[in-house]
Amino acid sequence: MKNETIVGKNPVIEALRAGRPIDKIWLAEGLRSSQLGPILQLAKEQGVVVQYVPRKRLHEWAPDEVHQGVVATVAAYEYAELDVILANAKAKTGLPFLIMLDGLEDPHNLGSILRTADAVGADGIIIPKRRSVGLTSVVAKASAGAIEYVPVIRVANLVQTIKSMKDAGYWVVGTDAEGSSDYRTLKYDFPTLLIIGSEGKGISRLVREECDYLVHLPMEGRVTSLNASVAASLLMYEVYRQRNPLSLN
Fold it and tell me: Is the pTM of this model over 0.85?
């Protein structure tokens, strides 16, 4: 984690003032708000997530540095802008295809999803700022290089982003075990935003309500769910299969 951190009160304040892309700010439990005024204000203005943790955790992350109870984690890679990605997707040949991840917290899953997204030629992946893994070095390693080619967009509000994409002509396909159709019955012949939820919880209620279609993966075994990256891969390849039919000539 050392190569992805900014340590100490003043360095973190200056990084915020400079507009450096920060994933999250970690503060030691017990710090008084009066000590953190500039950090909390700047973080709020920029939409940076702040989380309190035991001081011993900060000691583990910065064992040889005076952290003053303040550590910020920095994205290993830059995030893309949604407007730019939508414009690029519209200009290319073929139907646009983006993936949105709702609450995915495992970096290995995000890395695997990036690999499949690259394989099927997806235009990008959208993640929320809160309750989601960011672009860390673990994600980069798990992606096996795909992180260099698949844009990742980080947004403050998934529901508002979905509404904007609907206005741009996208149809929204969410994954849900209940009240949904077999994923093979849907024809993905439209600009598609595919939403994958977290393992266990799935997609959130507000996101679910914005979906135009809900699909599920049929299962005959005893295990009730698939790993999020496996489910995402199957769904992405179904979109690819339909849009790139096999020629037998």
Answer: no
